[in-house]
Amino acid sequence: MNRGGSSASASANYLLCTNCRKVLRKDKRIRVSQPLTRGPSAFIPEKEVVQANTVDARTNFLVEEYSTSGRLDNITQVMSLHTQYLESFLRSQFYMLRMDGPLPLPDRHYIAIMAAARHQCSYLINMHVDEFLKTGGIAEWLNGLEYVPRRLRNLNEINKLLAHRPWLITKEHIQKLVKTGENNWSLPELVHAVVLLAHYHALASFVFGSGINPEREPGVSNGFRLISVNSFCVCDLANDNSIENASLAGSNFGIVDSLGELEALMERMKRLQEDRGDDETTREEMSTRFEKEKKESLFVVPGESFHSFPHSDFEDDTIITADVSRYIEDPGFGYEDFARRGEEHLPTFRAQDYTWENHGFSLVNRLYSDIGHLLDEKFRMVYNLTYNTMATHEDVDTTTLRRALFNYVHCMFGIRYDDYDYGEVNQLLERSLKVYIKTVTCYPERTTKRMYDSYWRQFTHSEKVHVNLLLMEARMQAELLYALRAITRHLT
């Protein structure tokens, strides 16, 4: 299926890898048979994840208590590198999928499918196709959106806006959903749906950002190949997304260079912490620094510095597989920088005007009992999670780095914190990391192993998974802030 109105002749220049389903140019065709990597992640050595799971018996307990699939799936295995966070994640996901709530169980899984489809995340689609059927879902709905009730189809607009441009959501979108006669949504139902949509958009970012592999069951499940669009595959060799080991990477990224990179980052963090009390930056200057960072994010282009598809070609000619396309409308609609070149008045969501703590939390908790507490715990957990280490260094205060990662995601979604100096973002986040963050957050299906490998080369995989957890939760909170603000405006 073509995206963005591409012609048949354009898509004829491409084919899909039969193993991983990536889009390939025909002139770079390469035959594939078996994936090169095993284990839960294509980016992380299997032994690192397995060792963590073996040592931590608590992970198995958490899976028994809260897993919706009843088994240790690949997402859970990778997240178990951070067991404290995993508990918060599983509890909140279990609550929104299994516990008492406004929506019927099958509808919850179908909404998860619709959300995952916006990012072509076959891993999550396959998972929830199975769960949808197990909870009594009507099999015919899996043929596509035209087979589901009009009420569910009406979620398409808010699904695509939340996934790609949440700042466009207005109270009119909410009014349209709650005032559509026999197909209307109650506010509690809509809040439940919005939480599910935001959760699965963000989880798709984690799946792609962490290189989550397909589950190992062989063959086909309910007509769907068990595939993950971004798992590393031999076909990547045709697009210069090769597996980088020390000998391959040595010519580009020397061990001395990456050690120097680490020391320089730690020095900048230390200096920022020391200077904080002395800084007399004015509010005007803080605002200017935010606008500067916001505009600079325009020029952080996913895929830059990587010899894969040219950006414009990839964007215009991506082929969305039939398995995914049946669950989405307007497949050409994607992330677009809210601060586009040439605009004088750039829209900004001032966090102080509508915060999660003071506004979003109470609204979501009132309309969907207790979910606010679970989400709040999860946001706080990932934001405050630290082992006071950086690579091989111990007793390190990583607060400024965690804040920069979280706030940079919100910056790309137009959310500004008046009391935060966005100059810190530029000092702490190198360009390759910014490219990775923007890709994982805004275009997760384009994430490659090369992008993952390119930043923080001295850091552990566990630390990079922590980055992905921060990006996932920052993205989910940003989507919820826009949606809940629109619902608040509808109520007032």
Automatic annotation (TrEMBL):
Cellular location(s): Cytoplasm
Gene Ontology cellular-component terms listed: cytoplasm; GATOR2 complex; nucleus; TORC2 complex
SUPFAM superfamilies, sorted: AhpD-like
Keyword Coiled coil belongs to the record: yes
Coiled coil region boundaries: 255-282
InterPro entries tied to this protein: AhpD-like (IPR029032), Sestrin (IPR006730)
GO molecular function: L-leucine binding; oxidoreductase activity, acting on peroxide as acceptor
Domain of life: Eukaryota
Keywords from the UniProt entry: Coiled coil, Cytoplasm, Oxidoreductase
Catalysed conversion reaction: a hydroperoxide + L-cysteinyl-[protein] = S-hydroxy-L-cysteinyl-[protein] + an alcohol
Main location: cytoplasm
GO process annotations (BP): cellular response to glucose starvation; cellular response to L-leucine; cellular response to leucine starvation; glucose homeostasis; negative regulation of TORC1 signaling; positive regulation of macroautophagy; regulation of insulin receptor signaling pathway; regulation of phosphatidylinositol 3-kinase/protein kinase B signal transduction
Matching Pfam families: PA26
Family: Belongs to the sestrin family.
Protein name as catalogued: Sestrin-3
Lineage: Eukaryota, Metazoa, Chordata, Craniata, Vertebrata
